């Protein structure tokens, strides 16, 4: 029986999906629960209420419910029964105990008292609790860490479930407890407090889930009652019992009433909580709602499995949080997994199928896995819903790197393509073996999918993806080998190669149990059952393939691509079975085939696989070791004899044809491959190979195909000799002989570095770098001091040649890589891997001390240019080098920049150097170097300062000719150095400014023309983004302007002691200073041209940031000009901008005098709008100032400016030294005549230390300033217009108590 009118009561009524997701997001704000929501606080009429007044009048006791649920030790049913008993004794007190339990569960320490419950509404109670919350941290019981809270959520949910279960026959229909509880939870779920909202939503949803179970029980009871009533009524008149019919009718009426009450509660919870909280800002709350609605649909599908409810899950599939999407998919899995419910999901599936298919590519792997598993259920239970296009979008996922996702996609592939044809039915709990025809069909389908899809080149990943669902078919090695050995097979060459790869991959998967390279599993190990299964499979595999492997090798011995994986099969065998199974004859056959394959092929992959297979068999532990060793000796004897004969022909003859060269090269390749895995020292191959290489160096007549394997042979010979010597106490003669061989070989490789053939050069470099690393000082570590005579240090010439080779063969620009599918792209990728190998070998020589660390500059200077190709290698080298020697590494970084700069200077000259693209790349490299120092400024302080000083020395190391006005040729290097300035602390920046000035004093320069690189570098040393006036370049004293006019006498107050206070000390006593920079809102006449620069000014007008900054060009002596603005009345509304300025050393305060005509113009402008009421000024009147700095001083701020007032007065503010701190600099500025009412002030203030001027008149500003206040950069002037007015434009300014025409300063 369906719920009454629940669907009609939904907030989002309707059964279609026409409304889009965007419209659902833009819905109106959630309304309060409707009037039908139960909100009663008092019991219904007729309900039993037992009061105990003595307890009701007292304060509620401590909440034992919360402590018991938190402990999670007692039986939850007993706990609820105890509460029910207390509730029956005192209804109000019992209900308050339940309410306070939920409040405590939210983490709130407040309680609901009887008086509050009696006199206050729910909203007032919640407001009161919110005020008392006082959360010390963001944690509350549901999210609190620690073992005591770990099980709280489970116990809390179990308590709610048990409460409804125990009350379903009594208090559930009382009206008082449940209705009030639902009303309280609804109010709490709408709270702004996260803890209230989260906990109450969880309680409400669990309450709703329990009510759904009760409603389901009532529905079943109603169905039974209806059947009983129909059966009784259909009886004959003599058998019918009227009393039973009447009792059944009364029972049905009672069940209907209960059903209606339950529906009312569920509707109240759904509309009051779920509809609003399923889109809550907190993902945990959204996840709770989606999880519970999925439970409702599964348990009570008759009422809840409708489109009106399903749409919430469909909309939430687009949620941005992983956990919510995961809950959606799990809820849908529960629905699609039931074939009986799928018919009611057709409309939902058609609407949201595309979204479910697209979630296969979700960025979160666990979400993508659940999406694939959901589609598997749709594939199984809803035929024809997923189109071929949908399936084709899932197939490529079988090659994903994440094994869980790939395995899920493999299962989908199995059910879509393989299961209909290759179903494995089970009978009696035991799997019935498939027919050979079914297995053949399976492998044919597998081949067809792999070959025709062309999604990947390696079948091992496909085998691994299908292993969990189709492992039984893949382990059918009988069918696989029969297909391969069948004579009349219709398999092509590609299909044969793929089938062999599937055979080898399945054997490896069964015997080793780990996925292919690059696929992540996340599992730590195998269970005991899995290990047993793996051992059984390995035995079964070995027993089956040992007799067949020689046959397979004989059939495919001519094909290198097929024989290579077959030789690798031996690593999956249990080789003891050769003995225990008496299969020695098959071993003989295998050794014969192995020898034929080695003699027949010269490909490196085949030879490597064959040498490894023979190495596995030549284990002294095996009883058949003698047979394997004899076969190895036969094979090496054969190869050695061939080599001796062919070598004699080469040494005696001056010309060899192509066949002879090929045969010699092939023999050397075979010997080299086996020398890598086997000790061939007793065959004495060193001398003939050295003889061959010496002829190649002397005459150049030896083909490069022969030289390459000969170099490798000599290299392996030296290593095997070192192995023998390391195992025993070697004589001095043996050590000397080995060293001589090693030195001779290094000389040969050094000669090969200049060979015309690139392959020979690269091979010689790789072998040489490895050999130098082996014979480095590291070889005596670990108690092997007797090997000290073998330690070898390369000479300077060899080091230079290695570095030159690196430049010529590694750091070279190649064309852009294409799509990666063409043969040319594959070759380019292979070449890139080879170059990375060369670079890695060189870097290892640097880090292990074989080469001088300064040679690392040849690598570091290409860090930025080749970042995509070698960035990881160079970064790791840089990190390791810094760990070895931090100071030396910093010098190497500087050396790299010096080398690049010098090369650029030689190519292009000093003119316009910093505008070249190569110079911009160098700046990017310097920035990347600076980032490598990390955020630890104090730890790297000495390194960065050293780097700056060395860089300054280099920039001024070469001076221009005497009398020339050109800048030094290396001066542009300062721009590169500026990239390291953010890594400096403030004190070091001041020191470097002083150091730079001292260095600049030795350089002559054109007067009034400071150099751009110096300005840029000084700007970078500013503690904040600064103007170009921070340049410490000293202007000639003859060019300085004197102050004349009204402020001239004030200028003379600047004494030498005050100048000393502005000088840079070893530890600068002052932080960044503040001064004003101006920008007119309207065009002003006579302003100097300004240059914009980002983020260097602050806008103090209504707290709005400015879009850009303005920086005056430093063009030598500065001239002040009073701007004229005919629109005088608009001047009072213009805003003043403040920018951060830093002063420099050895400068004097200079002001250019104003002309009398300009002053008159200014007076006229000031008098034209003297009345504030006429102008309609704001509470703050500020003036835009034309800021000009002529001779700033380092260590303090000394800024001069002009005002719009008729009278200009220069004031000087000083402060006494603070205890433990340095002296404060003077504060300079102009202010207008305070006698004129309403005149705006244009005072320029620059605090050095933090101080606070609150209630000071202008006349009070001659004494010491207050101290010990927080440092504030923002400086401006405030004027009191009227006594009780508040400043609305600048709310951060507090009221001040000055009367009349007094003036106040605020910081």
Overview of this structure, please?
By secondary structure, this protein is mostly helical. It is flat, with a radius of gyration of 44 Å. The chain is built from 49 helices and eleven strands. A three-stranded antiparallel β-sheet has the order 3-7-5, with no helix packed on it. The two termini are 75 Å apart. Strand 1 and strand 2 form a beta hairpin. The N terminus and C terminus are likely disordered. Helix 18 runs parallel beside helix 20, helix 37 runs parallel beside helix 39 and helix 42 packs parallel to helix 44.
Number of helices: 49
The tally of beta strands, per DSSP, is: 11
Major pleated sheet: 3 strands, antiparallel
**Any idea what the shape is?**
flat
Order of strands, widest sheet: 3-7-5
Q: How far apart are the termini?
A: 75 Å
Please tell me the overall pLDDT.
74
User: What are the low-pLDDT stretches, counting only 5+ consecutive residues below 50?
Assistant: 1-62, 424-432, 1025-1307
Structural class, by secondary structure, is mainly alpha
Q: How much helix, percentage-wise, in residues?
A: 40-55%
Biased composition (Basic and acidic residues): 1043-1054
GO biological process, one term: chromosome segregation
Organism: Macaca mulatta (Rhesus macaque)
Subcellular location: Chromosome; Nucleus; Chromosome, Centromere
């Amino acid at each position: 029986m369906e719920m009454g009118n629940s669907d009609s009561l939904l907030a989002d009524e309707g059964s279609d999906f026409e409304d889009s997701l965007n419209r659902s997001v833009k819905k109106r704000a959630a309304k309060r629960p409707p009037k039908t929501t139960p909100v009663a606080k008092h019991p219904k009429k007729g309900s039993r209420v037992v009061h105990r007044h003595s307890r009701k009048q007292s304060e509620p006791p401590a909440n034992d419910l919360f402590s018991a649920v938190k402990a999670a030790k007692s039986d939850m049913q007993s706990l609820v029964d105890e509460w029910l008993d207390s509730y029956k004794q005192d209804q109000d007190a019992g209900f308050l105990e339940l309410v306070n339990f939920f409040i405590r569960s939210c983490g709130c320490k407040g309680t609901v008292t009887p008086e509050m419950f009696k006199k206050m509404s729910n909203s007032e109670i919640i407001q009161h609790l919110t005020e008392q919350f006082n959360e010390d941290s963001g944690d509350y019981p549901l999210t609190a860490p620690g073992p005591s809270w770990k099980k709280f959520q489970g116990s809390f949910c179990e308590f709610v479930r048990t409460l409804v279960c125990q009350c379903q026959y009594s208090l559930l229909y009382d009206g008082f407890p449940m209705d009030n509880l639902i009303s309280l939870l609804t109010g709490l779920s709408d709270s702004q407090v996260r803890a209230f909202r989260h906990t109450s939503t969880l309680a409400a949803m669990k309450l709703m889930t329990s009510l759904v179970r009760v409603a389901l029980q009532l529905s079943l009871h109603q169905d039974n009652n209806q059947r009983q009533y129909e059966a009784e009524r259909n009886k004959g008149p003599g058998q019918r019992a009227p009393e039973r019919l009447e009792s059944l009718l009364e029972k049905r009426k009672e069940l209907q009433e209960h059903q209606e009450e339950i529906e009312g509660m569920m509707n109240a919870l759904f509309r009051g909580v779920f509809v609003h909280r399923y889109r809550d800002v907190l993902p945990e709350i959204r996840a709770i709602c989606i999880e519970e609605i999925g439970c409702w649909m599964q348990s009570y599908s008759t009422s809840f499995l409708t489109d009106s409810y399903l749409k919430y899950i469909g909309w939430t599939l687009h949620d941005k949080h992983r956990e919510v999407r995961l809950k959606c998919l799990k809820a849908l899995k529960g629905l699609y997994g039931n074939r009986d419910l799928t018919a009611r999901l057709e409309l939902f599936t058609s609407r949201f199928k595309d979204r479910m298919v697209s979630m296969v590519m979700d960025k979160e792997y666990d979400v993508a896995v659940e999406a694939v598993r959901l589609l598997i259920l749709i594939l199984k239970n809803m035929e024809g819903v997923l189109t071929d296009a949908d399936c084709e979008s899932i197939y490529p996922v079988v090659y994903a790197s994440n094994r869980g996702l790939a395995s899920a996609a493999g299962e989908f592939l199995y059910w879509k393509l393989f299961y209909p044809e290759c179903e494995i039915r089970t009978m009696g709990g035991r799997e019935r073996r498939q027919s050979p025809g079914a297995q053949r069909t399976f492998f044919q389908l597998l081949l067809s999918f792999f070959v025709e899809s062309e999604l990947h080149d390696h079948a091992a990943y496909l085998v691994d993806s299908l292993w969990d669902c189709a492992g039984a078919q893949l382990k059918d090695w009988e069918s696989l080998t029969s297909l391969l050995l069948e004579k009349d097979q219709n398999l092509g060459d590609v299909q044969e190669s793929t089938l062999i790869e599937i055979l080898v991959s399945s054997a490896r998967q069964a015997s080793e149990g780990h996925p292919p390279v690059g696929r992540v599993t996340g599992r730590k190990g195998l269970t005991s059952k899995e290990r047993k299964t793996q051992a059984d499979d390995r035995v079964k595999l070995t027993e089956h393939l040992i007799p067949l492997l020689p046959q397979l090798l004989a059939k495919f011995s001519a094909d290198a691509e097929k024989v290579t994986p077959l030789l690798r099969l031996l690593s999956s065998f249990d080789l003891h079975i050769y003995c225990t199974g008496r299969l020695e004859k098959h071993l003989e056959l295998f050794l014969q085939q192995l020898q034929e394959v080695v003699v027949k092929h010269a490909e490196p992959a085949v030879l490597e696989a064959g040498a490894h297979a023979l190495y596995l068999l030549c284990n002294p532990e095996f009883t058949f070791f003698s047979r394997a060793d004899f076969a190895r000796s036969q094979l090496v004897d054969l190869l050695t004899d061939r080599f001796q004969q062919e070598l004699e022909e080469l040494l005696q003859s001056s010309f060899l044809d192509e066949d002879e060269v090929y045969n010699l090269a092939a023999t050397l390749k075979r010997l080299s491959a086996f020398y890598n895995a086997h000790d061939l020292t007793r065959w004495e191959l060193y001398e003939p190979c050295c003889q061959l290489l010496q002829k190649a160096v002397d005459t150049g007549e030896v083909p490069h195909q022969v030289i390459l394997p000969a170099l490798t042979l000599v290299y392996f010979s030296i290593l095997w000799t070192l192995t023998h010597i390391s195992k025993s106490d070697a004589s001095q003669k043996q050590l000397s002989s080995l060293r001589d061989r090693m030195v001779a070989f290094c000389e040969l490789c050094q000669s090969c570095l200049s060979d015309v053939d690139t392959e020979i050069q690269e091979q010689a470099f790789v072998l040489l770098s490895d050999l130098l690393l082996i014979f480095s000082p590291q070889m005596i570590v670990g108690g092997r001091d007797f090997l000290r005579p073998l330690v070898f240090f390369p000479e300077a010439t060899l080091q230079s040649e290695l570095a030159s080779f690196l430049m010529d063969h590694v750091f070279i620009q190649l064309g852009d890589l294409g799509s990666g599918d063409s043969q040319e792209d594959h070759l380019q990728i292979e070449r890139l891997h080879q170059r990375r190998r060369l670079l890695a070998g060189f870097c290892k020589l640097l880090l292990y001390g074989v080469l001088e660390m300064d040679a690392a500059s040849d690598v570091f200077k290409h860090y930025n240019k080749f970042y995509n190709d070698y960035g990881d290698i160079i970064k790791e080298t840089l990190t390791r080098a810094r760990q070895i020697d931090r100071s030396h590494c910093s010098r190497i970084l500087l050396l790299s920049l010096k080398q690049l700069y010098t090369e650029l200077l030689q190519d292009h000259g000093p003119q316009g150097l910093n505008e070249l693209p190569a110079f911009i790349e160098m700046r990017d490299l310097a920035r990347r170097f600076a980032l490598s120092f990390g955020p630890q400024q104090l730890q790297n302080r000495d390194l960065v300062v050293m780097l700056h000083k060395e860089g300054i020395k280099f920039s001024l190391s070469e001076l221009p000719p005497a009398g020339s006005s050109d800048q030094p040729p290396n001066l542009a290097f300062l721009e590169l150095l500026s990239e390291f300035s953010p890594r400096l602390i403030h004190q070091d920046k001041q020191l470097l400014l002083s150091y730079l000035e001292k260095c600049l004093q030795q350089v002559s320069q054109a007067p009034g023309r400071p150099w751009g690189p110096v300005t840029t570098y000084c700007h970078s040393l500013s503690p904040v983004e600064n103007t170009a006036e921070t340049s410490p370049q000293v202007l000639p004293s003859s060019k300085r302007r004197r102050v004349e006019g009204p402020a001239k006498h004030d200028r003379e107050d600047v004494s030498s002691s005050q100048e000393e206070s502005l000088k840079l000390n070893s530890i600068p006593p002052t932080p960044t200073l503040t001064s004003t920079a101006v920008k007119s809102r309207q065009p002003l006449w006579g302003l100097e041209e300004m240059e914009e620069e980002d983020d260097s000014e602050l806008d103090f007008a209504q707290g709005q940031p400015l879009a850009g900054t303005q920086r005056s060009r430093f063009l030598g002596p500065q001239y002040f000009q009073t701007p004229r603005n005919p629109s005088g009345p608009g001047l009072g509304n213009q805003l003043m901008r403040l920018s951060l300025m830093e002063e420099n050393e050895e400068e004097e305060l200079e002001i250019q005098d104003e002309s009398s005509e300009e002053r008159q113009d200014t007076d006229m402008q000031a008098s034209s709008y003297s009345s504030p009421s006429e102008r309609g000024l704001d509470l703050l009147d500020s003036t835009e100032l034309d800021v000009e700095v002529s001779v700033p001083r380092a260590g303090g701020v000394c800024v001069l400016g002009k005002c719009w007032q008729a009278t200009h007065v220069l004031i000087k503010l000083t402060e006494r030294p603070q205890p433990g701190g340095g002296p404060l600099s003077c504060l300079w500025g102009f202010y207008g005549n305070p006698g004129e009412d309403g005149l705006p002030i244009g005072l320029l203030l620059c605090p050095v230390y933090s101080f606070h001027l609150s209630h000071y008149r202008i006349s009070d500003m001659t004494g010491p300033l207050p101290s010990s206040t927080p440092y504030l950069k923002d400086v401006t002037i405030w004027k009191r217009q009227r006594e009780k007015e508040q400043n609305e434009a600048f709310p951060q300014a507090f009221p001040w108590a000055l009367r009349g025409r007094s003036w106040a300063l605020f910081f």
